[in-house]
Structure formats: structure tokens, C-alpha cells
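Sample intake sheet
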Amino acid sequence: MTATLLKEASPPPAAPADHDRKRRARRRARVIALAFVFPALLLLGALVVYPVLFSVGRSFFDASGDRFVGGGNYSEMFRDPATLKAVRNTAIWVVVAPTLLTGLGLVLAVLVEKVRWATAFKLLLFMPMAVSFLAAGIIFRLAYDEDPEKGVLNAAAVSVHDTFKKASSYPTARARDGQGLTKAADGSYRTTATASPGDTVGLGLVGVRAEDLSGSARPAYPATTGKASADELRGVVYLDFTRGGGGEQGKVDRTESGLPEMKVEAVRDGAAVASATTAADGSFRFQGLDPGSYTVRLPASNFAAPYEGISWLGPALVTPAIIGAYLWIWTGFAMVLIGAGLAALPRDALEAARMDGANEWQIFRRITVPLLGPVLTVVFVTLVINVMKVFDLVYIIAPGPVQEDATVLATQMWLVSFGGGNNQGLGSALGVLLLLLVIPAMVFNVRRFRGSQR
């Protein structure tokens, strides 16, 4: 009886027609899915797979593409000084940029939580991500300009420098040859003849620009009148140039201007024993001098070239300068990603640490950073992949003369292939090298994503 009830309770076997219907439904679903995926696969194959395979094959041929050279391009690649410099610069980028960005993003993400207008602050820092690399490169190329009239960074540097150290009064001034002044090795000028207390000395200069001449300058001729006392050495520093022509070289004429704010020294036995600063008419005087012979000197500080700022785009600083532009763009990205991870941290752990007496630095170092480890790793590896492919900023910001000093693998690949080298074989080898360097970081990132999903 039990067997009869079980037999009656069990479902009837499925009909063959039901299996066929389900199989056709699954097949139709696969076809529909394939139809939707096919355009993406077609684009992926045309824009990624085919170029990669073509570049790998092209790297084994010479510049013309007709002769097979095997690994010749790869061996040449590591013999080329420009390529070795590109590898070195790429290594600097990979080590410095992601590390700084991850650190800045972490610090800013933690600090933003304590800012009242946190959303506005995040928006402000994230806004550079909306700027294209081309536009950002042009912005920073102008900001790094060596001319303080154009480059904002050098304008700030010059302003700060001139605040603490006064610029020279007459950077273009010089003495006429054979007019009683000789130039020393240190850039100063001194009289060829000696003078004694009671004498009056005239020091004529030329080459003074109109904008360097102080508005308070007065004619130098009255300063030559009168006689010095027995313990006094007097003189005048003047512009030995008469507007409209005329006048006598080496002699103070009535219309010639004095040069104010010029430092003057009386030198005896190689040492300065007295100093003075010229008045509005260029006059100066040394009082209380001992009897004897003196040489009058105009120190080199009067003629020093003005401070013109820092050569941001010179061979030494061009790579750090470009990395600075990259930090400006990507700091907001790192901050937002790390901030999202920070928001997901268990607050009870942080509160428990505070209740146990831990200060904010201890909480940050021993709790926040370890818990954010997976997020920090993903951000760091993502930035490593990104900096390996950096091209726009380097190509736009670095001027032509220092392009080789700033080059990275991506720019070197373009320069070798299309920027004048016209060697697509070597350029393809550089592209394959760049691909091989990026793949490990990509694989690591994918595994991290899969691990976080599990």
C-alpha cells in the first residue's frame, strides 16, 4: 500500500517535448545575449586585440616593415640612451606619483570628515578631474613659464625673494673703457687711480635703462661743486650720458643725472674701511678717514642680475614639475575613493579605541590605515597602471629642448614611431614593453576585485 501511495505521489516523467522546448529557450537566450555582446566584442577586437597582435608582429620587422629582424628592435631598444632615460623616468613616475597621490588622498579623506563644508571641499578637489590632460598641460605650461610676467609660480617666487632680499639697483650698468674705472673678477668696479681725503671723485656709468633710473634722481652737476674737508673723501656716481647728444665723456655735465641708492666703498690695503650710499644726485662722502691713498669701489651687488625665479622646466626639475601637474588632477580621485572606503569602516571599532584612551594619531595609524588597506592597495595599483601610460602631460608641458629629459615610455614610443623617428618597428617594441609592464598590475588589480567580491 505504501509503494502504491509513493507511486501515485511521484510526478510523471517529463515529456520529450518539454525538454526540447527548454533547450530551444536556452539556445534562444544565448543567441540574444550573443547578439547584444557581439558589437562590444567586435569593437574590442578591432580596437584592442588586433592592434596588440599587429604591434607584436610589427616589432619583429625593421623600420620599413619589409625585413624580418627578429629581436633586433628589442636589443636596440635597451642600447638607446633616450629609451633608457625613458625607462628611468617611468620608474620615477611609478614610484613617486602613486605613493604621493595615495598618501595625499588618505590624509585629505580623513581631514575632510572634520570639515564643516565637506561636500564643497570634495567638489573643489575633484573638479580638476573634469579638465582634460591637454587643457591641464597648457595651464601648467603657462604656470611654469620662466618669465615672471607670465608664469604665476615664478611671479610668486620672485615676489617672496625680493621681499627678503632687495634686488640690485642697476643690473645693466657698466663703466666706459678708459674712463677711470676697471671691472674686477667679482663683478665690482673700482677706480684705477687712488684718491686721498680732500679729493672729489667722479664715477661715470652707462647702460642704465630708463626704468631702472629712480624717479627721485636729480642732476649730478651740483654735487661736484664745493671742496671736501681734510678728512673727507667726496664723490658722485652719475649717468655719463647726455640726452640728445653732446657732453664730454668722463666729465659730469649739467644735464646728466646722478645715480641714487648706489653702494660705494672706500678701500685701503684690499679691505673696505668705509661705505656709503649715494643720494638723489648721486653724491656720496666718506668722513673721518685717516690720511693716505684710497681706492673707491662700486660693489658687485649694485650690478647683480635680478632674480628671475626657478627654472621649473629645466632639465633638473621638468619631471617633478610634470608630476606636480599630475597630482593636481588626480588627488581628488584618490581622495573620493579612499573617502568611500573610510565611510564603510565600522564606527564601533573607532569609538572603542577612543574609549580605551587612544588619541587620533594612534587611531589613524593602528586602526584606520590597516582597515583601509584593501582600498589603499586598489587605489595605488590603479594609479600605477595610469602613470605607466601617461603621455599628454609630458608631451605638452615639457619644452622641446628638454623633451628628452622628461620623456617616458609612452612619449618615447610616439616620438620613435611618428615624432620624427619614423621607425614603427622600434616603436612597436616599445609598445610591447609597455604592455608587459602594465599587465602584472592589471592582473593584480583584477584579483583584488574578485577577492573583495568573494
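Comment: The chain has two domains: 72-157+312-453, 174-302. The chain is about 50% helix and 10% strand.
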